[in-house]
Amino acid sequence: MAPRSIIIDTDPGQDDAVAIMLALGRPDAVELLGLTAVAGNVPLHLTVPNCLKLLELAGRTDIPVFAGASAPLMVPLVTAEHVHGKTGLDGWDFPEPTTPIRPEFAPDWIVETVMSRPEKSVTLLPLGPLTNVALALAKEPRLAERLESIILMGGACVEGGNITPTAEFNIFVDPHAAARVFASGADIVVLSLDATHQAQITNDWLTAIKGLGTRVGVAFEGLLTFYERFDTEKYGTDGGPLHDPMTVAHLLAPHLFTGKRVNVEVETTPGLCFGQTVVDRWAVTDRPKNATWVTGLDSPAVFDLILDAFRRLP
Ligand code: BDR
Ligand code: CA
User: What is the pLDDT of residues 54-84, one digit of tens each?
Assistant: First the structure.
């Protein structure tokens, strides 16, 4: 089968970084058309160079990087240095990147790329707040049906929130953008905390990543050791959940995941539940089913998939 063409919209972030590497490690299955950076875990002036640093580490400076939105649509930016460190990629000392970014505004490039390619031939993987995706959809609403699918990390239902009691970080940062995306009519798969909390890094796996002895493996042992410390303390677990790579894993191996077609709406009214994904799991309303909500995953198999991809990186 020909590789699937994808665009990753991202706010790296150590877990974003693993997702990018997973895609780069599987050129047999995935053609990464570009990275579009958005403000999220850290401000845009850091997420853009973080994309470049990761591509330089992997020796893939042929992949273009585009800067997108520096702030959410309607609310001030909230960042997550408490999780990812002040650079967003704390845990490894990257050299300053030398690759130039591309001049186009990320949402414009997404529209141009998807609309100029055959219908249903590009999948979009958003790993951060949905600002760039909402702006692209605002510019070109037909993008929704032109895309093969949107496989996103965000939201929470059963697990509760990780930034407020009810909201997950990516959706909380830009709920207005998320509401637009869920209302767009696109084919959407959601890797929420309900799924990603089942994907916990183990010490053995991290040791295996370092044991690869490659420059990528050694760097990621540092990055993920830093990244885990916050969640292991918070949840009292042995390892941190690896959120964003579950999107790429779902693209590569959907049989490792289970899910349910549901209606998802986003709470945009200020108050206690601001940024919550309201999931109609039991179809108690007549609202249209607009997303596949992933409820389960085969964690050991997914971590094997990631390790295998890392084996193929420099
Ligand atoms: C999400 O928020 C970010 O901190 C992570 O990169 C992930 O995309 C998890 O809530
Ligand atoms: Ca992210």
Answer: 999 999 999 999 999 999 999 999 999 999 9
- Predicted TM-score (pTM) of this structure: 0.97
The domain defined by 4-311 carries CATH number 3.90.245.10:
yes
- The residues, any chain, with a CB within 8 Å of residue 282's CB and separated by 6 or more, are none
**Looking at the predicted structure, is the pLDDT value of residue 134 above 80?**
yes
Handedness of CA 230, 10, 255, 283 (dihedral sign): positive
Domain assignments of the chain as residue spans, ordered by start: 4-311
> Distance (Å, rounded) from C-alpha 27 to C-alpha 225?
27
176 catalytic per annotation? no
Bridge partners, residue 189, by sequence = 151, 292
78 Cα: distance to centroid of ligand 2 (angstroms): 13
pLDDT tens digit string along 182-212? 999 999 999 999 999 999 999 999 999 999 9
Summarised one tens digit per residue, pLDDT across range 21-47 is 999 999 999 999 999 999 999 999 999
Q: What is the CA radius of gyration of the chain?
A: 18
Pocket of ligand 1 (CB under 6 A): 13, 15-16, 41, 80, 83, 127-128, 153, 162, 168-170, 243-244
